[in-house]
Each structure stands twice: as structure tokens, then as C-alpha cells.
Amino acid sequence: MFKNYIRIAWRNLIKRKVFTTINILGLAIGFGSSILIYLFLTHHLSFDKFHENSDRIYRMVTESHQDQIGYNASVPPAFAKVFREEYHYAEKVAKMVNWDEVLVKVEAQGQNQPYKLGVAFVEPDFFDIMTFPLMDAAGNRSLEEPNTAYITEKMAVKLFGTVNALGKTFLYDNKETIEVIGILQNVPKTSLVTEGLFISFKTLEKFNEFVSEETWGGISSDLQCFALLHPNQNIADIENMLLELPKKHRPKSKNKHVYKLQPLADIHFNSKYGGVDPALMWVFGVIGLFLILIACINFINISTAQAFYRSKEIGVRKVLGSFRHHLFWQFLSETFVISLFAIGLGILLAVLFLPSFNNLFELELSMNNLWNVQFFAFLSAVLVLVSFLSGSYPGILMSRIVPVLALKGKLNHNDTGGSTTRKVLVVAQFAISIVLIAATLIISRQIDYAVNTNLGFDRESIVMVDIPTDIEPVKLKSLKDQLSQIGGVNEVSACLDSPGASHSNWGTSIKFHNRPEDEEFSIQAKLADKDYLKTFDIPLVAGRNFFEHDSITEVLVNEKLGEKLGLASSNDLLGKKIEVNSERTTIVGVIANFHDSDFTEDISPVFIAYKPHWFSQIAIKISAQNTKSILDQIGEKWSNTFEGYIFEPHFMDERVAEQYEAEQRYLSLSKVFSGLAILIGCLGLYGLILFFVGQRTKEIGIRKVLGSNVTNILTLFSMDFFKLILIAGVLATPIAWYLMEQWLQGYAYRTQIHWWVFALAIVSIMVITLITISYQTLKVALASPVKSLRTE
């Protein structure tokens, strides 16, 4: 029986090639998009699942309770030792420090080959907590020894040209010679830890005082602490016990720490601690569902429209003995065959567009990841769901046709499903498209607002260049003088980092003037020389610039500090003493507020002070003309000063744009899927207009005989759809407004949602619809009325 259903279904589909093609293309686009989204979701959902004891691995994190609650994916350096020795909840505890783009040199052919690499400094127990298997090791040696390292196979090939790298050495940051004592399997791409170079933690302790096991005074996001807990531990009980640690080790601090245990499985999806926003996963899933839903709506609309023309076939089948359930399964079989072809084409489309998808999200997804039981289960579920969703309603409608009326030709369109159902489905289709277009416009406006709004400092034609942090002040001043003499260089400043788009934000407590206790908020440190204000064009609103001294005796603060302290005027800050980072100093100037972070956060209180041993970058304002020549000269001066280091300039405006990479991806995603939704909708509209034009061919002929022109006829067809679009717009506008309002809540500084955004989305759908229906409508409208009137 099933074989017969399939054979008849195939014949019917071949007979109606145009409509079959439209249905297959629409479903294929939906399937292809869903496959890419499936790849994306399974990639993210598989993060850190490969560790053997992943259910018992936790990261220690901190909630900082001040005037606001801050979240930091780290704990003070001393926390690990105390948790390991004074508590008995964990089998193993280990610290890790991640540093991006550090200098690594390998001797090759008598020369040192430099690389900029990400490096992780880890304690030996780290590899007992995480599952990163050793392929080869040098005897019983471990990362307990200073100046030793494990590297992955991939990193071994990169640095030494061979996997057999045991005993080989490299130079770290021109400071320490490191020996390779272990080769690890390559780190999976779905890992929290992405570095391929692991150096012993004791190496870092030799030249970085902050990581000392006695330090409770600060938190760096670079330092993370992991623990492998004993089985069956109660996390709430552990966190309650940890409440005593701040009272014991930080009793006087206004910045109250609350230490939490974050499950390994939560790290990738917890946006508070730097993970991916889980809402993004839901958005992807819903978009995939929407695209398939739109394709199913097309199928239902076209199928119910066809029912009128297939009524005699159904009547004959019923007269010859077919029951309703026979007809239902027959039409469901046709849907299944179409869905089967669509899935095959969808897989092909996914293969073709996967490289572009990878480029958009900077991933390395592969179709090889699909050939498993889970994917085939997903594909089968989608196939069955779409077949029933698309085929059930048309099958039920057509199986209910009365054979007598069908054979006498007395059926109308209401007897085969009516126009009401089709109108409702078309409205739903239009509404989804309007929501996607409106969302795209609003996201685009917010990104444009964030990137192009005045940030309170100049970012045009400013080049940021890294420098070694241990540079002597005399050497740094000499370099600044040399750079200032280059034609086209307007200003030069040495600093810890730029005013905004910073890579190294540093918040610290503050005690103002004669107040006995620290304030309830932190202040951001922007360590720099006196040329910082001129280079970034930051206005001084009161007082003067500081003088450079060996110790911090004078500082600048921004207006926001006065606001947080409740002062009436910026002048009230001048001459006041503040204590920051245990150093007491005097406020000599107040600068205008600037955005020290992206637009998701409010402007912070800031102080600027001269502390040259902390400087890590040089900011250079250059002329917009002859940029390459100027950069070449800067690179030459820089390389002569820092022989053996890598010169890598970064433009400030590019840094600002990088802050919104995630939003840019959202925008690209919105554009792509809005386009796909519109494309699928256009296919369905084209199919419907074929039926409507065929149904009203004689009417068009009569209208032309009575004097109607082409414009009148085109308006006649268009107005029916425009009414549906307006209804869809009324329904879609509040939905789109609510969704975008929720999204914009994540921004402290945001654009406004204007009415014209929704109007533009509705008009866009009208224009696209008019273009879609014009071809077939004009074709009939321009035909001879005699030919139209002879049509039966």
C-alpha cells in the first residue's frame, strides 16, 4: 500500500512541476538553515563535555558587592592555597593564568624566530582536574619545576617543525628559557582552555608579584582557580562556609567579596562571567523554527489552493472506493516525497554555505560532525514533523471533499479549505518577515550609535603599540622623543592602556579626603604620562594637568567621581586628597567624562596618574596622509629600541569597533535570515499568484474589455496582499518592539526605537510583494482579452 502511495505521489508531483519545485526550494532553504543552526548549537552545547570528571569540576568565581554587584570569573591569588589546605571539599585545586599574545622565541638556523602566542601558566594539579592527555613526557618530570612547559602536538609542529619536541627550549618574553617536558594531545576546539602552550606556574611567580599566595587585595580576570570536588558535595554548604573568608582576610574592605562555585558546564553559557549569552542559543533555535514554519506555510497555502483543481481526481477516487483515510495518507505521501527531496537539497545548501557561516562566526565547523546518530535522529524528527505539519491539513481538507459536487464541478474554494485559512497563514508569514526586518534595522541603528557616537576622547588616526612593561623611564622618554620627530606624528603618549576599548581595565578601591572608610564603589586606573590628554583630546574642565614625579603625588579624576561622591561642582574635587591602591595623592585636575567601557556599561569614575613602570603601550596620533610611510618609520624607531620584539600597531577606531563584534555578528545573522525568510515567502507568494491569476483570467479579460488598464489590474491583485501586509504589520509591530526593547535593556547607552522603523519594515514587505506578483499579473494583464475570455 505504501509503495502504491509513493508511486502515485511521484506521478502527481511530476505533473505539477512548477509547484513541486517551489515547495522543494522553500523547504530546502528551511532545512539547510536548520542544519547550519544545528551544527552551531551542538558545537556550543558540547563545550568541556570531554573531561572525564566534568560533573565534579568547578571554577571559583567572585561577586563584588559594592554600590552595584560585579561578577568576576576569578578569585584572589591566595584563595587556592586556603581552599586546598583549610577545607576538605576538593581532591585537587589548581590556579591558571591566561595571557594573550606574549612573545615566544625559538632558535632556528642560528636565529631566534619570534611568535606572538597565547600562554597559560598552570599549577601541576591542573592536569589532574582537566582531561588533556599526555602523548609523551620526559621521565617523571612535572610542571612542579620552574621554567618547564607542556605543549600540544599542533604547537610543537608550529614552533619546532616536529611533534618530537621533548627537551627543546624556547625563550619566553626575552626573559626566561623554558624547556618542553611534555607533549599533549591537541586541545579540542570546544574547550574553555584554548592555549596550546602550558608553562609551570612557578615560572610566573618568579617575575609577577601579584600571583603570590599571600595576596588577598585584588582580583585579575587573567587568574582562574579550578577544583575537582569529592563526589556528592553540597555546593550551597560550601558557599556558605566560604562567606567567612572575606571577613577573615579582607575585614576592612568596602568591596565585599562573595565567593561562588561555578560548574564547568555553566562556564560557557554564563554571560555574567564572560560566557556566551544563552539567549543567543534560543534565538538561533527560534529562527531555524521560523524558517521551516514559513516554508510549511507556503506548502499548505499552495496545497489548499491546488485542492480546487484536484477536486475531480478526488471525486473519482472516492467513487471507485477510496476512503477518507486512504486519501489522507496519499496526500501525506506526496508531502513526504517533497520533504525527502528538500532535505537532500538542504544538506547540499548547508555544505555550500558552511564556509561563509564559519567566517561569520569565526568557527571551524565541519559537515563531518553531522554523520552520527544524533544528527540522523534530528533529521528524521524534522522530516516527520515537517511532513505532518505541511501535509496533514491539506490532506484532511481534500479527503473531506464531497464526490458528487466535485464531479459536477459545483465546488467553490470555500469547499476546499477556503481563502480565510490561506489569508491567516500569509499574515503569519508576513508578520515573521516584518519582525526580522525591524530587528535588523534596530540592531543596525544601535551598532551605528555605539561605534559613531562621541566617546569623550579622540580615536581617529591614533595608533596603539605594545611595549615591554619593564622599560626604564629614560629609555621610554628617548623613544617618545624619536617618535615625535617623525613627520606626520602629532602627539605621543605612554600609558597602561587607551581611555576606552581597553584590554586591561584595573579597578581599585578609593578613600576620599578625610573620610574614614573606603567608598562603596571602585575607581578605574588609567596610568599614563602628561601627554595623555593631548593625544586623546580629553578636555580638562577644572584645575591643571599633573606633573610627572617618581611617585604618585598628583592625579587627574573625571567628573563622574564628583557625581558618585555627591559633590555639587567639579571644583570641589580640586586639592582634595584621595587614597588609591594604598597610595595617598592630591587631585590637581578634573577631566570630562569619557566612555571607558562599551555602551553596555555606565561611565566609571576614573583617575589618571603617572606610574611609568606599569606602562604597557604607546599611543601615537598620526596624520591621515601617508599613513603607511609614517607607520614604517614608527616601526623602525620602535624596533631599534626594542630589539627582538614584534612591532604590531593597532588603530584605535578598529579597537572600538572590535567591542561590538558580537553585535555585528547578530546584525549579519539578522540580515541573512531576514533575507531567507523573505525569499521563502516570495516563493510561496509566486506559487499563490499563479493560482489566483489562473482562477481570475476570465475576470481580467472582462475588465479589459470594459476599459481597465494594466495599472488597474495590477492594483486589483496587489491590494488583496497589501491588506494582509497591513494586518501583519499591526500584529508584528508590538512583538518586534517588545523583543528589541528587551535586547536594548542590555545597554546603558542606547538608541531610541522610532515608529518609522516598523513603517519601513512594512513598506519593504509591500515593495518586495509587489515585485514578486508583478510578473505573472502583468503577463495576464498584457495578454489579449479575447484569449482570456476563451479560457476555461
Automatic annotation (TrEMBL):
Subcellular localization(s) per the UniProt record: Cell membrane
Keyword terms, alphabetized = Cell membrane, Membrane, Transmembrane, Transmembrane helix
Q: Which top-level group of life is the source organism from?
A: Bacteria
Instruction: Return the InterPro entries for the record.
Output: ABC3_permease_C (IPR003838), MacB_PCD (IPR025857), Macrolide_Exporter_MacB (IPR050250)
Q: Which Pfam families match?
A: FtsX (PF02687), MacB_PCD (PF12704)
Annotated membrane-spanning segments are 21-41, 279-302, 327-355, 375-403, 424-443, 672-693, 714-740, 752-773
Q: Which GO terms describe its cellular component?
A: plasma membrane
| Domain ABC3 transporter permease C-terminal span(s) in chain numbering | 286-401, 672-781
Entry annotated with the keyword Metal-binding? no
Q: Give the source species.
A: Flagellimonas alvinocaridis
Domain (MacB-like periplasmic core) spans 20-240, 431-622
Q: What is the recorded membrane topology of this protein?
A: Multi-pass membrane protein
Protein name in UniProt: FtsX-like permease family protein
The terms under GO molecular function for this entry are: transmembrane transporter activity
